[in-house]
Amino acid sequence: MKGTFLTLIIVLLLTACAPVDLIQQQPSPPPKTAPPLPYISIIIDDIGNDLAIGKRILQLPYPITLSILPHTPHSQTLQQLAYRFNKEIMLHLPMQALKNNRYLGPGSLRLGMSDADFRHTLHDNLQSLPDAVGVNNHMGSLLTSQKKPMDIVMEELANWGTLFFIDSRTTAKTIAYQSAIQHGLAAQSRDLFLDNRQDEHYIRQQFQLLIKKAKENGSALAIAHPHTSTINVLESELENLSTVGVSIIPVSQHVRYQQELKYIQN
């Protein structure tokens, strides 16, 4: 009994003399910081209907991300080619718009679907593109403004694994980004569209605006489409990117770096 008491006294004395940082649990190390800013990321939407333009995009020697429409004629071929070309892909998820819903294509999510049909359609779309690292909305000016369908989408994406969500922001009333964050998903919103007009002069102006935003804010995220005019501009502008002090990274890295910055700032 006396020996036990003496041992206890010694332990207490050693603990009292030990540095505080040896007693307290060490905090987790901060995540890796982002590369030297500024940087941009570019998503090309609407991939899957035109094989030739898809191949041309894949052959660009830059880490552009392709967002593929589900169940389109060339979605599977382009998914396989993207793997070979070391390009990441996303699921371009069709969502009901306020108008022009004839352009939604297969696998669309709409108001009025039963919860079971809604979830089944979403699962089917995800299963069709297993290499997808993230999701963004195709159209969706109506659906992305509605709480219940957005809650279902984000709940299912959160349960799916490590997917992130990009809000294409097809309406000022979108709540998609907020819903994604509330369900624990890594998420971002696009900063601008490069090619709302299929005119090379306009697209070059938009590209310069993208660079300007990146320099002002540290990063910028653009969405473009598989038009010949867009690819022509990207081929020439991206070749000169390093001369203006801006880098281009895949969207998955963009999202991760933004998450890390939030962690550090908090």
Task: Report what the structure shows.
The protein is of the alpha/beta class and 266 residues long. The radius of gyration is 24 Å and the shape is globular. It starts with a helix and ends with a helix. The chain has a single domain (34-265), classed as TIM Barrel. Helix 5 (115-128) packs across helix 6 and helix 8 (200-217) crosses helix 9 (228-239). Strands 1, 2, 3, 4, 5, 6, 7, 8 and 9 form a nine-stranded parallel beta sheet that branches. It is built from ten helices and nine strands.
SSE map:
Layout: H1 2-17, H2 20-23, E1 39-47, H3 51-58, E2 65-68, H4 75-84, E3 89-95, H5 115-128, E4 134-139, H6 147-160, E5 164-167, H7 176-182, E6 187-189, E7 192-193, H8 200-217, E8 219-224, H9 228-239, E9 247-248, H10 251-265
**Could you tell me the number of beta strands?**
9
User: Which second-level CATH architecture applies?
Assistant: Alpha-Beta Barrel
Helix content: 40-55%
Question: Mean of the pLDDT scores?
Answer: 89
Order of helices and strands: HHEHEHEHEHEHEEHEHEH
Q: What coarse outline follows from CA principal-axis ratios?
A: globular
The CATH superfamily appears as: Glycoside hydrolase/deacetylase
Low-confidence stretches: 4-31
**Helix/strand/pairing category:** alpha/beta
Largest sheet: 9 strands, parallel
Count of the domains:
1
CATH class: Alpha Beta
Radius of gyration: 24 Å
Q: What is the strand content?
A: 15-25%
- CATH T-level topology: TIM Barrel
Q: Tally the helices: what do you get?
A: 10
End-to-end distance = 51 Å
Q: What is the oligomeric state here?
A: single chain
